[in-house]
Write a structure and sequence with these properties.
Blueprint (H helix, E strand, L loop, with lengths): L8 E6 L9 H9 L6 H13 L6 H19 L5 E5 L6 H10 L4 E6 L6 H18 L5 E4 L7 H14 L12 E7 L3 H5 L7 H21 L5 E6 L14 H10 L5 E4 L8 H4 L1 H13 L3 E3 L7 H18 L32 H10 L6
Parallel strand pairs: 1-2, 1-3, 3-4, 5-6, 5-7, 7-8
Bound molecules: coproporphyrin III (HT9) and fe (ii) ion (FE2).
Family: Belongs to the ferrochelatase family.
Subcellular location: Cytoplasm
InterPro entries: Ferrochelatase, Ferrochelatase_AS, Ferrochelatase_C, Ferrochelatase_N
């Protein structure tokens, strides 16, 4: 039996996605409210969802992850219930927090389905948590968002195995010289510059995960593969600079440079959701086919039991820290374990919206801890 005190629940906080054709437009309105996404891009995104019957894979994948965590908790004797709330679709975070309060939950660890520091993957989730607590009122549980897990072995090791497996999908003759193309969501350069306590954390953390995955692959295959970090799924007004190169442009460059094949590794995402199954498996695959460049795509970490165990690890580690102990913090590579509590001003909204709310609320309610 492991003590998870002072936690009496885990909350999985995710993005959310439509579950049928009628959900697509309302979902996209939720995602882009006040975010300056041009209408063309919105129509395009809607078309991607419609290609999959209006159903995003993300909700099913979160249900699988919750089942894996529940099994892991049960096997390890960790008696915490797991709740689930989303930013942009049902089950909405506000409703879940209300239910947690009604169930008598006093303090919950929060796992977001985003491994890296950025406004979209960290700061905005903090804002969502603050807003949901305010909406719930005095009975709202105290919420402690768990540290970034991009360099946790339970996140990285499944990525290594999935990358090794993807080589089998390439023609045998080109495998040894295939390039590893590590991909993540593009974000505005200005947002990347302010990510994390000192800025630049989004790119620095991705480079670290990319390096760790490439190292693991080299160990498994007994040969080195060169790698690049590239970006996908860009949106927003075209005059603003976003992180580059785009994965499609990068594949063209590899072809021009005489690289015979590529393995796409979506290190930026936790599950094979729409940005993976459309932007890579449809769009980038089409680019590669036009170029005559063989590509394979590695699966994300998803509901791998090692990731579920990592979640338990992070919960127990944080619980111990809150009890004043000095827990062992499992981590790979050179950057060390991420901070427990995001300092003020970490991962701010690039558009400056909510900055007042965020700053003021964070001061009034110290970083989501009592
Ligand atoms: C860094 C990052 C992650 C990774 C971290 C994480 O995983 O959280 C992520 C994840 C996701 N993004 C998703 C979907 C969308 N993101 C959009 C728009 C945007 N994303 C951005 C960034 C990120 N997004 C940004 C800077 C914008 C521009 C508007 C804004 O500044 O907010 C739009 C609007 C239309 C479009 O532009 O495509 C949609 C539909 C889904 C759900 C997929 C599914 O349904 O399976 C997921 C998991
Ligand atoms: Fe996104």
């Amino acid at each position: 039996m492991h003590s998870a005190a002072p936690f009496d629940a885990l909350l999985l906080l995710s993005f959310g996605g439509p579950e049928g054709p009628d959900d697509v437009i309302p979902f996209l309105r939720n995602v882009t409210r006040g975010r300056g996404v041009p209408p063309e891009r919105l129509a395009e995104a809607g078309a991607h969802y419609r290609l999959f019957g209006g159903v995003s894979p993300i909700n099913g994948q979160n249900r699988e992850l919750i089942a894996a965590i529940e099994k892991d908790f049960a096997d390890a004797g960790v008696g915490l219930p797991v709740y689930w709330g989303n930013r942009n679709w049902q089950p909405y975070l506000g409703d879940t927090l209300r239910r947690m309060a009604d169930d008598g939950v006093r303090r919950a660890a929060v796992l977001v389905t985003s491994a890296y520091a950025s406004y979209s993957g960290c700061g905005q989730y903090h804002e969502n948590l603050l807003a949901a607590r305010a909406e719930t009122g005095a009975e709202a549980p105290v919420l402690d968002k768990l540290r970034h897990y991009y360099n946790h072995p339970g996140f990285v090791e499944p990525l290594v195995d999935h990358t090794v497996a993807a080589f089998d999908d390439l023609p045998a003759g080109v495998r040894a010289d295939a390039r590893l193309v590590m991909t993540t969501h593009s974000i505005p350069v200005a947002t990347a510059e302010t990510a994390g306590p000192e800025g630049g954390a989004y790119v620095a953390q991705h480079r670290e995960t990319a390096r760790l995955v490439a190292e693991g692959v080299a160990r498994a295959l007994g040969r080195e593969h060169a790698w690049d970090l590239v970006y996908q799924s860009r949106s927003g007004p075209p005059h603003l600079p976003w992180l580059e190169p785009d994965v499609n442009d990068h594949l063209a460059r590899l072809k021009a440079d005489g690289v015979p094949a590529a393995v796409l590794v979506p290190i930026g995402f936790v599950s094979d959701h729409m940005e993976v199954v459309y932007d890579l498996d449809v769009q980038a695959a089409e680019t590669a086919a036009t170029l005559g460049l063989p590509v394979a795509r590695a699966a994300t970490t998803g509901a791998d039991p090692r990731f579920a165990a990592a979640v338990r690890d992070l919960v127990l580690e944080r619980a111990a820290a809150l009890r004043g102990e000095s827990p062992d913090r499992r981590v790979l590579g050179a950057l060390g374990p991420s901070h427990d509590v995001c300092p003020l001003g970490c991962c701010p909204d690039p558009r400056g919206r909510g900055a007042g709310l965020r700053g003021a609320a964070l001061e009034a309610v110290p970083p989501l801890s009592s």
